[in-house]
Here is the input.
Amino acid sequence: MSDFAAADASKVSSEQSPWPVSRLSATLKDWIERLGYLWIEGELASIKIGPSNMFGELRDLQQENSVSIHSWSVAKIPADLKQGDRVLALIKPAFWPKGGKLTMQVVEMRKVGLGELLERIERLRVQLGVEGLTSAESKKPLPFLPNKIGLITGKDSDAEKDVLQNARLRWPDVQFRVIHTLVQGEKAAPEVISAIQTLDADPEVDVIIIARGGGSFLDLMVFSDENLVRVAAAANTPIVSAIGHENDRPVLDDVADLRASTPTDAAKRVVPDVEDERHKLTQALQRIRLRVEDYVSSQEGLLAQLRSRPILANPFTFIDEKELDLERWLTSLRDRLSQSLDRELLGLGHLRQQVRSLSPQSTLDRGYSVVRDLNGKVITDAAKVAANTKLMVKLAKGDLAVTSAELATKNTK
Here is the structure.
């Protein structure tokens, strides 16, 4: 049946024209068989291997999900498989219409070896590096003194005791919010992811420590889970990885903002030592005191040098010098002003002499007079004066009122 035919068939199914169960089963069988052969990965929840067949259950590594598996040939199935093994399986999904049962026919199955797991982890490291999630620039700085520390670890574990005891030895008032989770197995990753998200959303938590006291490579696989490390890389709160495994370190160490070698080391890296800080504070105060004393001493020396200078030894020296300069300038100004006045007085005397020599009064003083009519007009021509005309004669001293007589002679050219 083609996709188009299946779509048309689904449209035929309705309340008025329902499918029979057999048709539904046949359609499901047809669609499932189209999947062909698939490689899947999971954990064996149960397995029973006989001489010629195998039955079991394969469950998901992250979620509560499982499928039934079977095989009619065990040639490509290891005989030492047991419950809890992590395996890769080449399967062909099959649907039995008669019982409505979905099974997975196993063609080949093999354990997931350490080499393959290491290869996957290295591929994940490379991918995270390409995305910049492991670079130094992506690391968030840890607070000097966190308000509250989030701790994700196993319940009643040595890792929890190490972190709490060492942190409180260094800073007795340190506060913790502890979330207990599984730290290995298929259920551990979802629990750790949920704990990270819970602590990251808490505004009082300033740093998160994920701690476990070491373990085998397989025990630590949860801390290389891709979903877990991506949630850790995306967290806004700085994360400290304290898994305590030097060899084959988990991927969480790469994306964490700080990698601690052990839970004890994490406590020392996250919380300052109160005694060290007090010692540093004492040293800082001593340095400040010495610097202040040096500065005050240097300023006192500078003041002594300034006070020894003549201008400060006798503050009036400057005024006295300026007073002498002012007196010299005033004397010079008086001399110049006196000389200028003498020159101007001499010139004024000459001008006075010139004015006097040209003055009409000088002419009158020599015996001359000025004759004017009653209107004050000066008479310069006797021929223009009629007889018996009253005139005014100005002498050097005083005026005379006269009356003209007939001219004795007439002007001739």
